[in-house]
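User: As part of a screening pipeline, I want to sanity-check one entry by hand. Below is the sequence and the SMILES for zinc ion. Please return the complex as structure tokens so I can compare it with the automated output.
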Amino acid sequence: MTEAEVLTIFRQSGALLEGHFRLSSGLHSPGYLQCALVLQHPREAETLGAALGAIVRSLGVQTVLSPALGGIVIGQEVARALGVRAIFAERQDGTLTLRRGFALEPGERVLVVEDVVTTGGSTRETMDVARAAGAVVVGACAIVDRSGGKQGLDVPFHALLPMDVKAYKEDECPLCQQGVPVVKPGSRAK
Ligand SMILES: [Zn+2]
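Assistant: Here is the complex for your manual check:
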């Protein structure tokens, strides 16, 4: 699947937003891909999952692990493509953890799947959950890579769509300096 094909799916779903956004990382950005608007369509979700699955097939993944909520749908679809199970970690008292009876075996080969990677922080946290259980993280992947290649993960990382839309710290954000109101993605964009 080419980057242009992925972008076409995002455009058709209205998931490519422009404005002034505060990302979950805290950074500000003039553009945002709202993956949930693509993933609400199961057929598109399955297509993206299959494309990621094809990239990571050689890693010998036994289990897909995603951080809730953003990673769950695409994690499910990557797991479907690979024919493995999909589990997720979620926050309890601020700490990402496995709940609901989800467990990993020592040595189990885990792929971490996210919708978007920006700083790599939540990916690393999810990897830590797997490693704390003794599992082996064989790779990580996301639909969109907003890190500019700076995610700094210590495992192979793959994304379908590198997005070089700029992201700024709040005190360096030109849109803030112009007085443009900032919104959280998911709020109504201007
Ligand atoms: Zn700003």
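Points to compare against the pipeline: The helical segments are 3-12, 35-39, 42-56, 72-82, 121-132, 174-177. The pocket of zinc ion is lined by residues 20, 28, 170, 173, 175-176, 182 (CB under 6 Å).
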